[in-house]
Specification:
rod-shaped, mainly alpha, two-stranded antiparallel ribbon
Length: 161
């Protein structure tokens, strides 16, 4: 039987042939070609193409999910470390302003000390808020649990503090 000018083999391919088919179809999938285009160019059965596309998509999604979660966790940790450094600098500023206030005992010196305290407290609240936000994998687990059971599963919070 001919399809798109190529001979089409009917029946289940051997293991070696299946490997060749998969490698050939993977190239079309990786280029972003449609299933219809791939059927026309390769002559393979529509169901075969659909089967491999489903497998390729699942693998692709799993790779993206795994990398995304790792990147999201790393970005969160980097942001928390940056805020920790800012808090440390703010603590030094508060101590400096405190000593200036005590030496000068003036209203402007007291105002600078208060501003330094407010800035440090803002950073501490910002860090606490960021630390309480769960990573995306914890959120996904909770959504899945709520959709399948109707309530979150106990112990789905996998954050490492």
């Amino acid at each position: 039987m001919k399809n798109g000018g190529k001979m089409v083999h009917r029946g289940r391919p051997t293991g070696k042939e299946a490997g060749k088919i998969k490698a050939e179809l993977q190239k079309y999938f990786n280029r972003g070609n449609s299933q219809t285009y791939t059927i026309d160019k390769t002559g393979h059965d529509r169901k075969t193409i659909m089967q491999y596309w489903k497998e390729f998509r699942q693998t692709y999604i799993e790779e993206i999910d795994e990398n995304f979660v790792a990147r999201q966790r790393a970005a969160r940790e980097a942001a928390l470390c940056g805020i920790d450094e800012d808090i440390e600098a703010a603590n030094e500023e508060v101590e400096c302003m405190k000593s200036i206030r005590n030496e000068l005992n003036t209203i402007p010196a007291h105002g600078m000390y208060i501003k330094a305290l407010e800035h440090r407290n803002f950073l501490i609240r910002k860090r606490a808020a960021m630390d309480m936000v769960p990573t995306v994998d914890v959120n996904i687990d909770k959504i899945i649990a709520e959709e399948t059971i109707g309530q979150p599963r106990a112990g789905t919070d996998k954050r490492k503090d």
